[in-house]
Amino acid sequence: MGENSKDVRETPAAPEIDTSVPHSARIWNYWLGGKDNYEVDRVAGDQYAATFPGIFDIARVSRYFLHRTVRHLAGEAGIRQFLDVGTGLPTEDNTHEIAQRVAPDARIVYVDNDPLVLVHAQALLTSTPQGRTDYIDADLHDPARIRRLASRTLDFSRPVAVILSDVMGHVPDDDLARSIVRNLVAELPAGSYLMLSHGATTSQEVMDAQDDYNDSGAAPYRLRTQEQISRFFDGLDLVEPGVVPMPRWRPDLGDLGPDPQGAGIGGLARIPG
Fold this sequence. Notes:
InterPro entries: SAM-dependent_MTases_sf, SAM_dep_MeTrfase_SAV2177_type. By secondary structure, the protein is α/β, with parallel strands linked by helices.
């Protein structure tokens, strides 16, 4: 098996894809301009947009936040290992592509338990010759399994950046969600990082659209306040400017003007020690 080949010993065969109900990963893919979606997903995505037309901008804002934080991690922070949990469907500029443009020797493990993502996993498994990527089939709620399978590719005695991009809204209970994040970072060495972004209750139109979306049959997503999102970083050293609307986290441009209505919240923090 080659260095960049996928280890399938613990990965079940991909089931048939159900195209009769909308799927959150496919809807997000549609909002980002991707092609891995079906009519039912585009209908649900357009229904959301009918209530909140800015959702296409918000999806792109979240993606640009991922770009900037991963570039910072691979560049200024010197991180060479990334654990992207709840990665969703591949689109342009995935985590490994961003990181390896800065650091060709970076290693990236994608984690998801979604059958649809499993079908597309091979699209993620590309890498520079110096680095490596892998995909593991594991649940967000099972950090022990995630760590065990990711250790095929990552060295957990060295710093790792955990990426949680807009995934924690799928865990509605606050205590459980914070516990999951704590468990994911608890055994990482000092100098590791947590990047987390999250849909926020920053607009009544967004909240109304989210309520309609949650009734569509797709996996529901809970929006949180900025204060609730900040709690995910308890005990960690926040990187400036802290937990802020995603467009305000170290923007590439100068004055961006007003934030897009309904922009989510994100932050980056270092594990102290």
